Amino acid sequence: MTVPGGPTPQEAPNPSSGGARPAPPGDPAELLGRLGGSWTWLLGSALATLVPGVVVLVWPAGTLHVLAVVIGLYLLVTGGFRFVAVFAQERGERLPGLLLAVLYVLAGVLCLRNPLQTIAALSLIVGIVWLVTGMLTAYAAVAAEALPHRGVVFGAGALGVVAGVVVLALPAESALALTRLLGLWLVLLGLVELAVAFAWRAASRRAPGDGRAGPPAAA
């Protein structure tokens, strides 16, 4: 899940106040940072989680092959969202978000590379990704004292941790059971991410400037 972090919109660094030299106009990193720091990018990330959850819930009779493909695509798309969001961070804070983006992409590739894998393997991949992401999201919410709507962000992280623990600790015995379990958690995580996106939108509207919400932490 991609959630906001770093300085609030009101505390965005001012290039004219000294410090790091601003990126030249048209710089790809700056353009990606503006995109990744917008609340609409958070909204897109939330929809990338919510839509697959709805798909697997309304199609519970799908085979394990179909489920692995849907989950693999979800992980790849989410990894792409997280990679762009990394550029909205300060340069020294990008490594954790970049590693998590790579984790999502690798997990997606594993799901798509062998979609006929066992139920246990699919549960293990998704459970680990959610657990690690949820822990880092909760940590970001606690550590960033100036983060607006910290409670919402912390709730998103806590839900990710619970989702990862449940998937890892309660292995499904059939493709149907795994489909329902993963679909339910995807929908819940997607709804919480929607709440984070709209909360960040409200924070950006209260802040002066160009409407950029500030650096989102891919955690």
Shape: globular
Q: What is the N-to-C order of secondary-structure elements (H for helix, E for strand)?
A: EHHHHHHHE
Count of helical stretches:
7
In the sheet with the most strands, the strands line up as 1-2
Oligomeric nature of the chains? single chain
Low-confidence stretches: 6-20, 209-219
The amount of helix comes to 55-70%
Strand tally is 2
Percent of residues in beta strands? under 5%
Mean pLDDT: 77
Largest sheet: 2 strands, antiparallel
Rounded to the nearest angstrom, the radius of gyration is: 18 Å
In short:
The chain is mainly alpha-helical and 219 residues long.
SSE arrangement:
Blueprint: E1 3-4, H1 28-36, H2 39-58, H3 64-86, H4 94-113, H5 119-143, H6 150-169, H7 175-206, E2 216-217
Antiparallel strand pairs: 1-2
